[in-house]
Design a protein that fits this description.
The chain starts with 15 loop residues before the first strand and ends in a 9-residue tail after the last strand. The radius of gyration is 21 Å and the shape is globular. 25% of the residues lie in helices and 26% in strands. The chain is α/β, with parallel strands linked by helices. Helix 1 packs across helix 2 and helix 6 crosses helix 7. It folds into two domains: 260 residues, 3-Layer(aba) Sandwich (Rossmann fold); 114 residues, Rossmann fold (3-Layer(aba) Sandwich), CATH 3.40.50.20. The strands form three sheets. Strands 6-5-4-7-8-10-9 form a seven-stranded mixed sheet, sandwiched between helices. A hairpin with a 5-residue loop joins strand 1 and strand 2. It contains eight helices and 16 strands. It binds zinc ion (ZN). Zinc ion binds next to loops.
Length: 387
């Protein structure tokens, strides 16, 4: 099921730096489902700097979004309480960055279940809504908002012979074969001066995405800005302070010549991410070894891709008792057949050693909360400073 490619999907170069990990087998997706027989072959293109997994779900096409990958998230990977939905947050961010008119036609490329268009429809009822969604969310999308047109197909199979005032793409480019192709396609679907609203997970803040099988492109702020400019967009607004970054891009003229390089920026980001990812895996190894030596049991804190892949990368599933999470929505679920429990259940399960499989942002706070529960907390120790 491996969709290995030899050339950089963006610039076509076959020269690259290899990134952690080099792995074939059972892989986790961004929706926390496991798929067998995928590869993690992460690379940084030496010529343009593009960060990509040459395998993963690459080459599997839109069909993969009708299977395990695109189902509603079983766990809400969020530590804050009472927060807005990600779609509401994205919409409010775009409203703060752009002066959006009261009417117009908007196309949502990868509209999911329609959660974002619902926000648009509520605050801009005069907008005409159009959506493309190749995955299983399509039926819900169609029932959720009044759509002037809807397409249950991959964007690159559609021949839309019209333009829009606004195109929206939320957390889509990281899944597609070639983000430059997608940006050019969206550029062609905009009227002159039309706006593209782009949201992407910032790989610089999500090093665990190195092991996320369906985030085949690791999008960074400097690289995405370069790519948008090259595809013919002028940036008119940006918010790059969060785990997701947001760009408001106005249709302009495409640049000529070869794809400009962001190799130095992207390789530095990738090396930091590798350092955190490796350290996280090593923390799980340390917890498993320590638990075994004292006759206890090991657990992994968190339900993110990196923590969920550690036992597979280490081949130690039998030696992990459970996953631990403070998010009650995750309790009673399982990760690769291992139970997810709340911290207070660690004692009854005999957990003596807990590895942190979460973003570095939370390491200190979570370690401080877990130590009083009588476990040794194994905090990852990266050999490179964080961003
Ligand atoms: Zn390249």
């Amino acid at each position: 099921m491996t969709g290995s490619t030899t050339a950089c999907p963006v610039c076509g170069s076959d020269r690259f730096e290899t990134l952690f990990p080099d792995y074939q087998g059972r892989c986790v997706t961004s929706q926390m489902f496991f798929i067998d027989g995928l590869g993690l072959e992460n690379r940084c293109c030496t010529d343009c700097g593009f960060l990509y997994n040459a395998a993963g779900t690459r080459g599997l096409g839109a069909a993969v979004y009708n299977t395990e990958v695109w189902k509603p998230k079983p766990q809400i990977m969020n530590y804050s309480k009472g927060v807005k939905t990600s779609h509401q947050k994205a919409w409010e961010t775009f409203l703060s960055l752009a002066d959006l008119p009261e009417s117009g036609a908007v196309l949502d490329v990868g509209g999911g279940t329609g959660a974002f268009l619902e926000c648009v429809h509520r605050d801009r009822p005069g907008w005409e809504l159009h959506a493309i969604e190749p995955g299983g969310g399509f039926a819900e999308l169609c029932g959720r908002v009044p759509l002037a047109s809807a397409h249950n197909a991959a964007y690159d199979t559609l021949d839309l012979d019209r333009t829009f005032d606004c195109v929206v793409s939320l957390s889509v480019l990281e899944h597609l074969e070639n983000p430059l192709h997608a940006l050019r396609w969206m550029h062609a679907r905009l009227r002159p001066g039309g706006l593209l609203l782009l949201q992407l997970p910032d790989f610089d803040k999500l090093p665990g995405d190195l092991v996320c099988a369906d985030h085949i492109n690791k999008m960074t702020v400097p690289y995405t800005r370069m790519l948008a400019r090259y595809a013919g967009f002028e940036e008119t607004g940006a918010d790059t302070g969060m785990v997701m970054f947001y760009l408001v891009l106005r249709k302009g003229e495409p640049a000529g010549g070869p794809v400009p390089s962001r190799f130095a920026d992207n390789l530095a980001i990738a090396r930091r991410a590798e350092s955190v990812a490796r350290a996280t895996i090593e923390a799980v190894r340390a917890a498993v070894d320590a638990a075994e030596s004292r006759g206890g049991r090991a657990a992994v804190f968190g339900t993110s891709p990196i923590g969920s892949m550690a036992h597979l990368l280490l081949g130690c599933r039998d030696r992990v008792a459970c996953f631990v999470d403070e998010n009650k929505n995750a309790w009673g679920r399982d990760i690769d057949g291992l139970p997810v429990v709340g911290p207070e259940r660690m004692a009854e399960l005999g957990v003596t050693d807990l590895a942190l499989g979460i973003s570095p942002v939370y390491w200190e706070t979570v370690a401080g909360k877990m130590r009083p529960l009588g476990v040794t907390v194994h905090v990852p120790q990266p050999d490179q400073p964080e961003a």
